[in-house]
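Complex 480.
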Amino acid sequence: MAGPLSTVVNNPVDSTAAAQEVTLDGSQESAAQDLWRRTVERLRGRLSRHTFQTYFEPIRAHALSADTLVLSHSSRFMIDWVRDNLLDILVADVESEASAPLKVDFIVREREDLHSHEAPAPVVQPLPQPMRIEPPPATRPLNINPKYTFDSFVVGPSNQFAVAACTAVANAPGKHYNPLFLYGGVGLGKTHLVHAVGNHALKTNPHCQVVYLSSEAFTNDLIHALEQHRMPEFRARYREKCDVLLLDDIQFLGNKKQTMEEFFHTFNALHEAGKQIFVTSDKLPSEIEGFEERLRSRFQWGLIADIQQPEVETRVAILKRKANQDGIALTDDVALFLGTHIRSNVRELEGSLIRLSAFASLTHTAITVELARDVLKNVLVVRGDKPDVDAIIKIVSEAMQVKPHDIKGDRRQQGIARARQVAMYLTRKVTALSFPAIGERFGGKDHSTVINAVERVEELMQEDQELRSTVESLHRRLGG
Ligand code: ADP
Ligand code: MG
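Predicted structure with magnesium ion bound:
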């Protein structure tokens, strides 16, 4: 196991020192392996199968000293990723197994195929290209966005499985998860990850031929090739001159028989040659209307990974990352406000940040929560996944048995007035609308009416147990 220490990666201690102080006599090595074996069992139970396989399975125990367990992995990229994302989990499990505080340290070990007695590494770095005999590196395909990298992608529980799969593919195209099928809703980062795979594959191997396009572009290209009688070129482009095919939004192929036919043959040719196929979709293969059965079954061969809506913590982290990148002064309270109120998708989140900062700089004001509330009121309510005012009025009217029309009207009869106040209160709680904006949506009432309503309901909730439970249950139904 004592492969040469090609690189030492630090964290959290100075690992150069740590690695030196560990001498690899047999007993230490086996103690390390023993501890690691037990830790692995613990981790296996805690993580999804794919996270585990991608990140932890390739890790080996290297050495154990009084205060440090040194682990090794063949990929520095993976080590960095584990350190950034999973170190706390890892350390906690190591410490539980060791029943003592321990640091965890990593080294990059040599590629595993030099140690044939070990299991093949799931992550294999491409061989360095011999100089001179090779053709010059392919230029980066122009349609791959250099900004969409793994580094600029914020990882959280909603996407860590997808990122793990993409990282494995990017590190060793064609070796694992082939094909990789990534699906998830609009604006959740699929295209970003596809580009990240392309960028990473090109960075590790500049000779890698990466082809990225949307399935619409693929369809158009095919139509064009058919019209111009240029099918041989078309086929060469996607079969011979391609090591990694990145096909975005494959759901567009549904019902396009001829394109599917061509893609089917492209798929087979690439797969047979061990070339990587990576597609994205906003639906599962089984949900794409008019998607051929044989294609569907092809995607079962590989891995189907999903990407979910990010949680609020991830949304806030994304905002901060973007603000930082773009030099936008975003305070924590505004980031939290936006992250809490814009839940639809990341694209919307980014768009809002950009709009907000544009507005702030145009008007020479600072970005505050109030400004955000004001500038983004349409997004926050209409385009976020929040209930809109009419939906709130509707559920209040049902629960309190008054007509929606009356809630928006002026009648002061007690039952009606109370329902109106509750609806205003809930609107204030679950949307980001300002008081005047709420008044406007309730049939053009003054903002002071809304303020009074909110205060009144707050008071009543202290006094009236029944009203309180009605309001709380409505609030929950509205996602509060
Ligand atoms: P999709 O293809 O799923 O519709 P995109 O990849 O186009 O979504 O993502 C929309 C925008 O959101 C992009 O600008 C992308 O960079 C950004 N984005 C999405 N998820 C993340 C994330 N986890 N971290 C950083 N940026 C993200
Ligand atoms: Mg996309």
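Confidence is low (pLDDT under 50) at residues 1-24, 112-136.
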